[in-house]
Write a structure and sequence with these properties.
The chain is an alpha/beta fold. It is about 25% helix and about 20% strand. A 5-stranded parallel beta sheet has the order 3-2-1-4-5. Helix 1 (about 15-25) links the parallel strand 1 (about 5-10) and strand 2 (about 30-35). The radius of gyration is 17 Å and the shape is globular. It starts with a strand and ends in a 24-residue tail after the last helix.
């Protein structure tokens, strides 16, 4: 079984993300997604609209994804490749040549895929005027089951 691993934040899931996951899955039999945790995003100076758990649930619902694991740091990647018996790590072509991933070629195949033109999370956030998550918004419906819902 050929295992493929990719890392991302996957905030505001869009067609470019789905296209990447489909192409990554086509490179093997089992697709693992390293999903950046909220804490790791803070280290990277990124802020997701959706929290980690919401993003994880959305990814797990996509047919191309077999397993979602937390990405907690830059340094965990070698261990992930070894622990999950990864054959190929897939990243966006904008990471090509970066010291953040290039060293992994000693442990597995490294494949860079072109990003989908015309769509990005940054672009969507900018066009919608989204800068930060809206405080107090329940992202998962089951979180509301004990809340009294009324009309004012």
């Amino acid at each position: 079984m050929k295992r493929v691993l990719t890392y991302r934040t996957f905030d505001l899931l869009h067609y470019g993300h789905i296209r990447l996951l489909k192409r990554a899955k086509e490179l093997g039999d089992y697709l693992i997604v390293g999903l950046s945790t909220d804490e790791f995003n803070e280290i990277k100076h990124k802020k997701s609209y959706h929290n980690y758990e919401t993003r994880k649930i959305m990814l797990e619902a996509i047919r191309y994804v077999d397993l979602v694991i937390p990405e907690n740091s830059w340094d965990q990647k070698i261990n992930d490749v070894i622990d999950y018996h990864v054959d190929t790590v897939v990243m966006g072509s904008d990471w090509k040549g970066s010291d953040k991933f290039e060293y992994l070629s000693e442990y597995c195949q490294l494949k860079y895929l072109d990003r989908t033109q015309g769509v990005s999370t940054s672009m969507i956030k900018k066009e919608l005027g989204l800068h930060n998550p809206v405080s107090g918004v329940f992202q998962l419906p089951e979180e509301r089951k004990n809340e009294k819902i009324g009309v004012e």
